[in-house]
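Researcher: Please translate sequence to C-alpha cells.
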Amino acid sequence: MDGFLLTLWLLRLAFLAGLFFFLFAVARILLRDLHAAAREPGAELGRLVVVESPGEDAPAAGSVFPLDAVSTMGRGVNNTIVLDDAFASADHAALSYRGREWFLEDLGSTNGTYLNSQRIGGPVRVGFGDEVTVGRVRLRLERARR
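Model: Translation complete:
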C-alpha cells in the first residue's frame, strides 16, 4: 500500500470519528434537556391576569390563568382559557410560546383580537406586561411565579 492510500484511509477514519463524536455530543445535550424537562412536568411558562372584565359570567378582575406552550382563548369549552363573554368567539385567539418568546394569533374571530389596544392581523410577538383584549376581557401577560 502506498503512502497516498494510507493517508486517504486515515483521513476517512478521522472524519468518521469526528462525525460520531459530534453526533454523540448532540444526543447527550438532547437527553440532558429531556431529563430537565421531565423533572419539571408542571412548570408554568407564564400567566395571564384579568385586568378588566365586563362582570356577568366572565372571569373576575384579578383572576389568574397559568399558560401552557399553546393556550387557546375563547367562549368554547375546549379552550385552555374559557372566557364566557358574548363578544368573544368560540375559538377566539391563541397564545403560544416559541423559542423563548410569546406569540399571539387571532383565530378568525368576529370582533378581532387586540394587543395593547391595537388590532392584530397575524401572529405578533408579545412581551411580559403587554395587554391582550379578547371580546370585552382585557388580560395582562406576566411571568410565571417560581
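Researcher: Any highlights?
Model: Residues 1 and 7 are 10 Å apart (CA to CA).
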